[in-house]
Amino acid sequence: MAAHDSISHFSHPGHELVKRHYIGSFRCDMCWENLTGAAYGCGAGCDFAIHESCAAHPQTYFCPAHQPHSLVLVQTRHDAAIICDVCKSGCATGSFLYRCPPCGFNMHPRCTALPLAAVRSSWHPEHDLTLTLVVPEGRCSAC
Questions:
Q1: Distance between CA atoms of residues 54 and 40, nearest Å
Q2: Would the keyword Zinc be found if you checked this record's keyword annotation (predicted)?
Q3: What's the pLDDT tens digit per position in 15-70?
Q4: 34: how many CB neighbours lie within 10 A of its CB?
Q5: Which SS3 state, helix, strand or coil, does residue 96 take?
Q6: pLDDT digits (tens, 9 = 90+) for 86-127
Q7: Spatial CA neighbour of 18 closest among 8, 26, 28
Q8: pTM to 2 decimal places
Q9: Residue (of 81, 80, 6) closest to 42 by Cα position
Q10: What domains, with CATH codes, occur in the chain?
């Protein structure tokens, strides 16, 4: 087996994860979204599998929007309702998210892909838009 066909991953310590092809009703144990196609599953036979993209998330992440602390990828408790502080949507219980231990700031791993630099939009051509962690009251804060 080639080295890239199996990995060791902090989310499932003690067991090697093997690249497999999934068809049917499977759920990623990191993001809790549907899992189809190529992914990593437990080589020891546990019911554990994660997307290739989820396996690529680093254990720590420096978010320019949340300075000066680094965020740590942790698994949420199964009895806790947690909201992402970036997109304001819920985090699935038992899923993984980035958390700032000193502040309690929470962020979905998928939200790390959101643009932090200014972007131009045809929907609002008057000026550039930037991602903000504060939800405005239904209008552009600059207009």
A1: 10
A2: no
A3: 999 999 998 889 999 999 999 899 999 999 898 999 999 999 999 999 877 788 89
A4: 12
A5: strand
A6: 888 899 998 999 999 999 999 999 988 887 666 777 877 887
A7: 8
A8: 0.75
A9: 6
A10: 3-55 (no CATH), 60-113 (3.30.60)
**Which of helix, strand or coil describes residue 79?**
coil
Tokens 């690529």 sit at which residue? 56
- Determine contact, residues 124/111, Cβ cutoff 8 Å: no
φ/ψ (deg, to 5) at 53: -65, -35
Kindly give, in sequence order, each residue whose CB lies less than 8 Å from that of residue 69, ignoring residues fewer than 6 positions away: 100, 101, 102, 103, 105
Taken as a whole, the chain contains a residue count of: 143
- Other C-beta atoms lying within 10 Å of the C-beta of residue 70: 15
109 phi-psi bin (left φ>0, alpha ψ -120 to 50, beta other): alpha
Residues 52 and 41: beta-carbon distance below 8 Å = no
End-to-end CA distance of the chain: 58
Task: Give the helix ranges, DSSP H, for 18-132.
Answer: 52-55
On whether the CB atoms of residues 17 and 6 are closer than 8 A, the answer is: yes
CA distance 81 to 76: 9
